[in-house]
Amino acid sequence: MQINEKDKSNRPNENPVPSDENFTPLIVAFCCNWCSYAGADLAGSGRLSYPAEVKIIRVPCSCRVNPTFILRAFQKGADGVILAGCHPGDCHYSTGNYFTRRRMTLLFSMLDYMGIEKERTRVEWISAAEGAKFASTMNEFAEKINSLGKCRRLGDLRCV
Amino acid sequence: MRIESDIILGKVKRLVSDGKADRVFAWKKGNFCYDTEPSLFTDNYVGFTYDDFCAANLCKFMINESKKDGKTLVLIKPCDSKGLALLEKEHRINRERIYALGVPCAGKIDMDKIRENGVKGVIGIEEEKENVSCNGDENLIIKTLYGDKIIPKKSVLYDKCLSCTDKEHVGCDEVFMPELSEDTYDGKKFEGVKKIENMPSDERFSFWRSQLSKCIRCNACRNVCPVCSCVKCIFDNDNSGIASKANSDDFEENLYHIIRAFHVCGRCVDCGECSRVCPEKIPLHLLNRKYIKDIKELYGYEKEPALLTFTKSDAEPSVIYERGEKNV
User: Fold this and answer.
1) CA dist list (Å): A105 to A61, B261, B312
2) Is the ipTM of this complex over 0.95?
3) For chain A, N or C: smaller number of CB within 10 Å?
4) Residue A112 is part of which domain span?
């Protein structure tokens, strides 16, 4: 099979290019049903704006998020993944987010170790009453991802 | 002192005739003196061997062996004993049907390292009896078709042996001649991990990209791992996305190894088998060891697997960003 020059330049293992003007990041936010999803709701009803590029996926608990979900989001073209859950101690299921905390610390540490920019992943604790925090976190995170540009280190060619 | 295969075989035969076990799982000589393979001995002991090339970990075979009637006697090296203990703890094996005989280990020899030294036509290996240097480092006499060659033993040991911190058997029914075990630890267990951690992000990425792009998804690392003992593995799913035929995708190599390392995170017994069996020589133990190092740094030593437990004062995930800044 012949590979033309254009395909080569698209290979994901090349360094991230600086963001161009047309670049809009795709951000996946896993939000826990009981706190952060309600926090997003509150941000909406409070008319606080946060970037439309943030795609929220509702999960029953932040602990439901399997590391494969996060990698799969990157594979399917996400530029940043943020995981939002109840504050430690406030989990609807008592202890779920304590497990999340350990898992994600270790997973993100591993991604960093493998050279994936560590700013692309984040864990935030956002309660149902913190609509403002939700909006500001998402704004800040989207800005960061915007400055990092497209994620090429963990992407799937077929989705580009 | 050299570990004699015949003495071990004599002990095994005694135990079997005493009725401690009905069959023996050990190593068998292969075509060449440096080939050994795991083998089950039921009637006779033709080809039985235990020498410096018996590096394979036998404990995972016990999952199937312990399903059979009667008892299996298995030879267990110190590093294998941790794997066996974990399999028992996770109820993967029926421990009552296994007789674990701890055998001494003085480090195993990596034939590839001997070849790297330019030695060809190996027909046998002996330990040098005289001239043992004062620091205890032994030399090996490698007998080849082209004459004898002398190589320091430490330079040809498996990497996993150089990072083996203790030669103590855990949970064996009996330990045979433990005094013959020799310390092979070079004091640099986390050196490899630290070296990568100190690289800039771009370099880390290209290092892992160049290593993982060699992966052929043969699943040898998974199959040999005493910790990877799930009956149904996520990667056996055709839709798991790690073995697509259109080989246009760098991602699946990353996915495979990140997820595999994560699945053994906190349970890894650091036996180093994954790197040993890798046909492409990917240093997979560096992934597992990174987790071991992180767990030690962040959560300290714990008897429970780190991901199955927590404390209320655990570090926040943001700790890795702060730590990264310090490194730079």
Assistant:
1) 17, 14, 14
2) no
3) N
4) 24-159
